[in-house]
Design brief:
With 593 residues, this protein is α+β, with helices and mostly antiparallel strands. It is built from 18 helices and 28 strands. Helix content is 34%, strand content 21%. It has a six-stranded mixed β-sheet with strand order 4-3-2-1-5-6, sandwiched between helices.
Length: 593
């Protein structure tokens, strides 16, 4: 495989020379600016061998490098070993820092190229502006497809409608809200490229992308017409009739550009520049006015309605039962023949799949023992699985997609003897998670403020972690959902009641171990005072927190009270759903400290 990739890079450089391209940019993206990609758009993995879900390749005649964030530093170094590829660490997650790098290295009158069909419009404009200042030419190029001759076809999985009993709001009502937002923005049309937004608006789900129950589609909504572009044959006849009854006209996936080009010059088109590819906008009538803003549906779907929340509470109970059974199994079977990171991840999925509403994992399970836990996005090696032994820490970050909700939870389990250092770090991470989950905050608070509050126990001990503290979570949709996020970036999104977010501080010691503890929380109203409205978090996740590694003397009474109350609540809610043996095991695991 390495020889094939070396040859592919050589061929790509020959085509770059042929076309007068000094530098090629390859983002981890597709025409829908997705985080998780269909196989046919996994250019980065195919060309470089890097398997992470975030990054950008830059290739010149003498350089081949990957820009990615701290979640993937160790992974990228390992995957690039003995290759020409270099890791360039990002200092700010998600920022196109390679633009400045290129600006310093490409001469005036040089050229930079990328495939317009997979580059977010917002980043493409930043590249253009930077290059224009120096006289560097920016070109569209899809020469990668000349090299990747056996590129996989686009997925053609079936799609289906979900009922209002699950999602709580009809497609017609959602379209009415979006049309109001279109009017308010001063637009006549709204283009949606992002797959999770489309799935939410039309109450449809599918399986075109692993772990994300979405459908490859575009949508064009005007004040009097709704066009949904997707491959023919995706839906049953009953679902087609259901969509038609909601005023939706189904069009071929490939006909989007034709319909966009047919828009009148008087049209005013609302788009999200972060979730729309530059290439999608090519060929529009130049008289059309473009309004750039976040998709209205992105805000709407972030605020879960009562039906969604009720379903999610049910999902959390069922998911918690699977986790209790998994942790009990782990304790009984480790150490044991054939109990590896891979078999443990498989067992957890089997236990989740016993629920009739289970659809799939919500992401690739991070089943990481010992030093592998120090890789935040580690994936166990199927070909050379790591055996779980009777010492050290085992980290499992996993989640499920159910018809009635999405879960994401991380726990760290001591498999036997552990060091004082491991106990100290575990206690600090748990303390940080408790700080985040128990925060009371005023209306208008943004994610970076929650992020800082959560990190304080670690900062107090001169420790930190490179990834964000939390991400939004969809309802039977993407496990990573915007617009809100808890990280160090000054994202101008207020945390509002109805938002579901993860709180997942961590601490990583490369070559030794990693610790991350994660719950999902719901933002809820707390109190109104003379100083305004205040909100708090309701913890949704129901999975016992292991207290064996806790150094009690490092915690304040309020932290101990929170942990004891949480574990007691887990037992109270889950015990009626367990067998006598499972109930007895959980009672011991949730005893007060």
């Amino acid at each position: 495989m390495q020889t094939d990739r070396t040859l592919a890079l050589k061929q790509l450089r020959e085509l770059m020379k042929r076309d007068g391209i000094d530098a090629m940019i390859i983002p981890s993206s597709d025409p829908h600016i997705s985080e998780y990609l269909p196989e046919s758009y996994r250019y980065i993995s195919w060309l470089s061998g890097f398997t992470g879900s975030a990054g950008t390749l830059v290739i010149t005649a003498v350089f081949a490098g990957l820009w990615t964030d701290s979640r993937y530093f160790v992974q990228a170094e390992a995957e690039f070993k003995d290759t020409e590829w270099e890791l360039v660490p990002l200092t700010i997650q998600g920022r196109p820092e390679y633009v400045d790098w290129l600006f310093q290295r490409i001469d005036a009158d040089g050229s930079i190229a990328f495939d317009f069909q997979v580059m977010p419009l917002l980043i493409a404009k930043e590249i253009h502006a930077k290059c224009q200042a120096k006289g560097i030419q920016v070109k569209h190029s899809d020469i990668l497809n000349e090299v990747w001759t056996n590129r996989p076809e686009l997925p053609a999985e079936k799609a289906y409608c979900i009922s209002e009993d699950l999602c709580g709001e009809s497609t017609a009502d959602k379209l009415s809200r979006i049309r109001s937002a279109i009017k308010q923005a001063g637009a006549s049309h709204h283009l949606i490229s992002s797959l999770d937004d489309i799935a939410w608006v039309f109450n449809i789900r599918g399986a075109d992308i692993s772990y994300n129950p979405v459908v490859l589609a575009f949508a064009l909504i005007s004040l009097d017409e709704v066009l949904l572009f997707l491959d023919d044959g995706k839906f049953s006849e009953a679902d087609r009739r259901k969509l038609t009854a909601s005023g939706v006209h189904l069009k071929p996936y490939s006909s989007l550009q034709l319909n966009l080009k047919g828009l009148a010059g008087s049209a005013v088109l609302l788009i999200d520049p972060q979730r729309t590819a530059k290439g999608t906008m090519t060929g529009l009538n130049k008289s059309i006015k473009i309004i750039e803003n976040t998709n209205p549906s992105t805000y709407f779907k972030a605020i879960k309605n009562r039906t969604e929340l009720d379903n999610i509470l049910t999902v959390m109970r069922n998911d918690g039962v699977a986790l209790v059974r998994f942790f009990r199994w782990l304790e009984k079977e480790v150490p044991g023949p054939g109990i590896t990171e891979v078999s443990a991840a498989r067992k957890l999925m089997e236990l989740r799949a016993q629920n009739p509403n289970f659809v799939s994992n919500s992401f690739a399970t991070i089943s990481a023992y010992g030093p592998n836990g120090a890789l935040p996005h580690y994936r166990p090696n199927e070909e050379n699985p790591v055996l779980l032994k009777d010492y050290g820490l085992y980290l499992v970050d996993s989640g499920g997609q159910y018809l009635d909700g999405t879960t994401d939870v991380t726990r760290v389990i001591p498999l036997g003897r552990i060091s004082n250092e491991e106990m100290l770090d575990y206690t600090l991470v748990l303390k940080a998670m408790v700080e985040g989950c128990s925060t009371i905050y005023p209306k208008g608070t943004r994610g970076y403020q929650i992020d800082a509050i959560t990190r304080k126990p670690l900062w107090d001990q001169s420790r930190d972690y490179g990834h964000g503290t939390g991400h939004g979570v969809g309802f039977f949709l993407n496990v990573h959902e915007g617009p809100h996020v808890f990280n160090k970036s000054n994202v101008a999104i207020e945390i509002e009641p109805g938002m579901i977010t993860s709180i997942e501080p961590g601490l990583y010691r490369p070559g030794k171990y990693g610790i991350r503890i994660e719950n999902l929380v719901l933002s809820v109203p707390y109190i109104k005072s003379e100083f305004g409205e205040f909100y708090s978090f309701e913890t949704l996740t129901l999975a016992p927190i292991d207290t064996r590694p806790v150094i009690k003397g490092m915690l304040e009474k309020r932290h101990i009270d929170w942990i004891n109350s949480y574990n007691k609540n887990v037992y109270t809610i889950l015990s009626p759903l367990l067998t006598d043996e499972e109930r007895g095991w959980l009672r011991k695991k949730t005893m007060e400290i």
